[in-house]
Amino acid sequence: MFAIEQVTTPSSLKTDAAEGAAEEGANIIGTSHDLLKPTQDWIDPAKVDENAQQLRNGEQVDPIEVQYGYILDRHHRWVASQLAGIPAPIRELPGFGPIGLPDWTDVTRMGGAG
């Protein structure tokens, strides 16, 4: 498994992620958003809503796990963070980079709903 570093916002995301999350209603599904890139090609809207509500409530949430700019875990939390305009914690993992998608253009909602 991976050696996990402290929960931090990678320096490359400190300004951009905060700015990217500043716009209420920034829906990144199906867009060329590439601040953090996906490694899965579907999103469940119900899970996004649940994560957005947790962020709005100020709940303590597990960090989004990222490696070399790709999300390894908690894609729904990143989408919710962008949609709600509330930054979520990010944990940058060391190691070899994953293979993922270049942006969110080809990511769809589960069930094929646009």
Textual characterization of the structure:
This protein is α/β, with parallel strands linked by helices. The strands form 2 sheets. It has a 3-stranded mixed beta sheet. The chain is globular. A hairpin with a 2-residue loop joins β2 (64-67) and β3. Helices cover 28% and strands 13% of the residues. Residues 1-23 have low confidence and may be disordered. It starts with 10 loop residues before the first helix and ends in a 5-residue tail after the last strand. α2 packs across α3 (75-84). The protein has a domain at 24-94 and 102-109.
The whole-angstrom Rg is 13 Å
Main β-sheet: number of strands, strand sense, barrel status?
3 strands, mixed
Fraction of residues in β-strands:
5-15%
Overall mean confidence score, pLDDT: 78
Q: Give the overall shape, derived from the CA principal axes.
A: globular
List the helices and strands and how they pair.
Elements (H helix, E strand, L loop, with lengths): L10 H10 L21 E2 L1 H12 L7 E4 L2 E4 L1 H10 L5 E3 L15 E2 L5
